[in-house]
Amino acid sequence: MKLSFDQVHYRYADGSPALEAVSLDLAARRIALLGCNGAGKTTLLLHMNGSLRPTGGRVRIDGADASYDSAGLTSLRQRVALVLQDPDDQLFAATVAEDVSFGPMNLGLDRAAVAARVAEALAEMDIADLARRATHALSFGQRKRVAIAGALSMRPEILVLDEPTAGLDPLAKRNLLATLDGLAMRGVQIVFSTHDADLAYAFADHLVLLHRGRVLASGASAELGGDAATFAAAGLEAPYLPRLIAALTALHPGLADHRLRTREDLLEILAALPSSGTHSQRRRSS
Ligand SMILES: Nc1ncnc2c1ncn2[C@@H]1O[C@H](COP(=O)(O)OP(=O)(O)OP(=O)(O)O)[C@@H](O)[C@H]1O
């Protein structure tokens, strides 16, 4: 399934312009949407499952115009699941299992099929042990996982997440990214928004930079991640790692042969390089 945006404009009911002539093809498996506060990230994500309808331009699904009647929206929301930034905007049932079963029940599946989907989604998010817990009595990070499990219970082709790591501690962040990575490897397309350029660079194959409702840049992480000037134009800090790698590559040209996404990747490669002692001896003797 491929979602694309063709000259999409969106204005909220009070007249606030939020998207201006957004044209995008969502083709890569892992896509990060970056932009400062008010850039239009949430508004764009809400268009992906039909929660918002463009006030101008078109959203296309495999090349065909999205349909906003009830059948069209039901079909779109089975294929594209949206996880809101605040889990409390999404969770409403008394227990975790009831909440996660809501989507599959609405699809009219029988009890056994619903139960299978709930078990699968909870296992995927590693929260099977929370199934009987009251949703209101969970921690923020746990509620976030439950909200994602609810989206996964629809077995979507595209999982769209608004700032999925906001409010998570570093370990929870890392665990969530590993889970999302596992889903991507299984073929689920992941599209998420974030303010964290390093995280976007580490996880995503493709970055989209939004600024004042417009797409300022869209490109492969490996290239766009190193373009500090474009990040600055979007009012963002560029990812640190590509800049560090560029500086280190001047000392170790072999680094250019690797696609290093994380600090851990860099440390591993640096540990395997000849030691700096050898390097400085070579410099002294030359
Ligand atoms: N419900 C609304 N009614 C009117 N204007 C809105 C509404 N929601 C958002 N906007 C406006 O639309 C623009 C884009 O907002 P949006 O929430 O999409 O940005 P964002 O990039 O997700 O921001 P943040 O990083 O702060 O979450 C902003 O100017 C905002 O004030």
UniProtKB/TrEMBL annotation:
<dbReference type="InterPro" id="IPR027417">
    <property type="entry name" value="P-loop_NTPase"/>
</dbReference>
<feature type="domain" description="ABC transporter">
    <location>
        <begin position="3"/>
        <end position="237"/>
    </location>
</feature>
<dbReference type="GO" id="GO:0006824">
    <property type="term" value="P:cobalt ion transport"/>
</dbReference>
<dbReference type="InterPro" id="IPR005876">
    <property type="entry name" value="Co_trans_ATP-bd"/>
</dbReference>
<comment type="similarity">
    <text>Belongs to the ABC transporter superfamily.</text>
</comment>
<dbReference type="InterPro" id="IPR015856">
    <property type="entry name" value="ABC_transpr_CbiO/EcfA_su"/>
</dbReference>
<dbReference type="InterPro" id="IPR003439">
    <property type="entry name" value="ABC_transporter-like_ATP-bd"/>
</dbReference>
<dbReference type="GO" id="GO:0042626">
    <property type="term" value="F:ATPase-coupled transmembrane transporter activity"/>
</dbReference>
<keyword id="KW-0813">Transport</keyword>
<dbReference type="InterPro" id="IPR050095">
    <property type="entry name" value="ECF_ABC_transporter_ATP-bd"/>
</dbReference>
<keyword id="KW-1278">Translocase</keyword>
<dbReference type="GO" id="GO:0005524">
    <property type="term" value="F:ATP binding"/>
</dbReference>
<protein>
    <recommendedName>
        <fullName>ABC transporter ATP-binding protein</fullName>
    </recommendedName>
</protein>
<keyword id="KW-0472">Membrane</keyword>
<keyword id="KW-0067">ATP-binding</keyword>
<dbReference type="InterPro" id="IPR017871">
    <property type="entry name" value="ABC_transporter-like_CS"/>
</dbReference>
<dbReference type="GO" id="GO:0043190">
    <property type="term" value="C:ATP-binding cassette (ABC) transporter complex"/>
</dbReference>
<keyword id="KW-0547">Nucleotide-binding</keyword>
<dbReference type="InterPro" id="IPR003593">
    <property type="entry name" value="AAA+_ATPase"/>
</dbReference>
<dbReference type="GO" id="GO:0016887">
    <property type="term" value="F:ATP hydrolysis activity"/>
</dbReference>
<comment type="function">
    <text>Part of an ABC transporter complex. Responsible for energy coupling to the transport system.</text>
</comment>
<keyword id="KW-1003">Cell membrane</keyword>
<dbReference type="Pfam" id="PF00005">
    <property type="entry name" value="ABC_tran"/>
</dbReference>
